[in-house]
Amino acid sequence: MQNEFSRTELLIRNDGIEKLANSRVAVFGIGGVGGYTVEALVRSGVGSIDLIDDDKICLTNLNRQIYATRKTIGKYKVDVAEERILDINPNAKVTKFKTFFTPETTGEFDFSKYDYIVDAIDTVVGKLELIECSKKAGVPIISSMGAGNKLHPEMFEVADISKTSVCPLAKVIRQELKKRGIKKVKVVYSKEPPIKPVIQTDEVSSKRQIPGSIAFVPSAVGLIIAGEVVRDLIAYKF
After folding, report:
1. Cα separation, 24 vs 233, whole angstroms
2. Alpha-carbon radius of gyration of the chain
3. Quick one: which of 44, 103, 153, 177 has the fewest CB in 10 Å?
4. Which residue would you say has higher pLDDT here, 71 or 146?
5. Is the pLDDT of residue 171 over 80?
6. How far apart (Å, rounded) are the C-alpha atoms in residues 184 and 165?
7. CA pair distance 131, 169, nearest whole angstrom
8. H, E, C per residue of the chain
9. pLDDT for position 202
10. Torsion angles phi and psi, residue 188, rounded to 5
11. What is the mean pLDDT of the chain?
12. Which of 2, 83, 85 minimizes the C-alpha distance to 43?
């Protein structure tokens, strides 16, 4: 009997489908990268998804974020994501947190409940805290490094943080994790040198430069991450 995951089952068999259906994945940050990660995880059959993001959709999200349309501007990303997820798989269990993840908000989460954690947030402090929490809980995590100011999605690769180079964000994370005694973290990063934005918009303050971004880069990173999560969850070996 055919269902929405019949084509997927041809590749990962029934036991793979069951593992995904019984898995719970937390995606921290559901913007350009995380939104596409969630999309692919749901369409792959992951049964339980936790969405963590306190942001609302704005006009400048339209160029790259899957949940951003003219109709969704002003709405919370987690609310729009939940509606889309349930349109794809009504049986999916969605848990939402309208939370900006920091060391101060860590207590809102029981990391031991997750089978996998996706780090698609923007701040260094948040990334480090999330990686530390996942390690303490013994839960696998994959972390997105810098996807802004890049134009070549084909240059992104999966590696351990210790093997990264060129990417400025990966360098900072690598150094900070070393101080914390954390040696191994799976990341997605690129050796493409960041492009300096040509035009500064009114979003740019004197203290922080907003990175440029384009439709096909964060989406590619998000899909790469989803692929890693799915294959790890089902222990893909064939």
Report:
1. 10
2. 17
3. 103
4. 71
5. yes
6. 15
7. 14
8. CCCCCHHHHHHHHHHHHHHHHCCEEEEECCCHHHHHHHHHHHHHCCCEEEEECCCECCHHHCCCCCCCCCCCCCCEHHHHHHHHHHHHCCCCEEEEECCCCCCCCHHHCCHHHCCEEEECCCCHHHHHHHHHHHHHHCCCEEEECCCCCCCCHHHEEEEEHHHCCCCHHHHHHHHHHHHCCCCCCEEEEECCCCCCCCCCCCCCCCCCCCCCCCCCCHHHHHHHHHHHHHHHHCCCCC
9. 56
10. -115, 125
11. 94
12. 85
- β-pairing, 186-190 with 156-160? antiparallel
User: How does pLDDT run across 113-157, given as a tens digit for each residue?
Assistant: 999 999 999 999 999 999 999 999 999 999 999 999 999 999 999
Task: Output phi, psi for 224, to 5 deg.
Answer: -60, -45
pLDDT band at 237, cuts 50/70/90? low
Q: What is the pLDDT of residue 206?
A: 43
- List CB contacts of 205: < 8 A, sequence separation 6 or more: none
Closest by Cα among 66, 14, 45 to 222:
66
pLDDT of residue 197: 87
> Which positions ≥6 away from 218 have C-beta within 8 Å?
31, 32, 33, 36, 64, 65, 147
pLDDT value for 151: 97
* Cβ neighbourhood burial of 207 (10 Å; 0-12, 13-18, 19+): exposed
First and final C-alpha spacing in the chain: 24
Q: What's this model's pTM, rounded to 2 decimal places? A: 0.95
Euclidean distance between CA atoms 89 and 142, whole angstroms: 24
